[in-house]
Amino acid sequence: MKIILLILLSQLLLVHSQESEDIIGYMYVFAQEWPGSICKFQKCTKTYMGNYDNARWNNHGLWPNTMLSTSCGFIQNCRDETYDENKLTVATKTLIDVTWNGMYSDTFTFRKHEWEKHGTCHPDNLTQNGYMSKVGNLNNQYNYYKILASVGIYPDNERQLTDTEFRAPFTKTLGISTAMTYTCQKDSNTGKFYIAEVRTCFTQAMKPRTCDCSKPVSAFVTCGKTFYYPTFSLSEQQQVQFEEIPDLTDAFLQ
């Protein structure tokens, strides 16, 4: 009970700090990461790629926020409910094994973090299965890879992109140019920017809306005038790591 009261108090203080604006509903930020860029800077392995099919971006999460008159308030850890993948149906588990993986860190831990920090704040009080299924299905509905491919933008290590051409297909899909925002990672050696994460914003009714309050993740930076959308493939060493793991496991079981 004390934990719940502390969480509620922190949320009230946070909302009050948002210039005492009235909450007029909820909004959602749906974030996906491009493995081709992320794995240039992190040690991704096949182990943590699950059943990723290289024909989509990888889910980061769906983040509920309180929607205010001119901005939004960040909310987190709303219910004390530990993540348990045994509560997921086979269909949901199959779905997120394709759409939502750790890439460079333990996938279960990543999903656990996203559920406990963000999923517990879903205003419809979705179950764990409901939330994970919703996020997985959003990846299919808003497949960033296909959205970009619809205007001829495919992963390419040489092609330089601008904000105008990168944003155009999202504007066509979402109907609002400001319903998406994105961040890059910068190669300190070459100075090149690589598109890392795209976020699309929705109302509580899941209609595209302007992103009022999206802030770059600390590891990301605002993209330069031009940036790259690189191809994705795991190195031979990363593939070998994956092959070795089951062999070691079998050895311990014998």
TrEMBL record:
InterPro entries: RNase_T2-like, RNase_T2_His_AS_2. GO terms for cellular component: extracellular region. Keywords: Signal. It comes from the Eukaryota. It holds the Pfam family Ribonuclease_T2. The keyword Hydrolase does not apply. One of its GO terms (molecular function) is RNA binding. One of its GO terms (biological process) is RNA catabolic process. Residues 1-17 form the signal peptide. This is Uncharacterized protein.
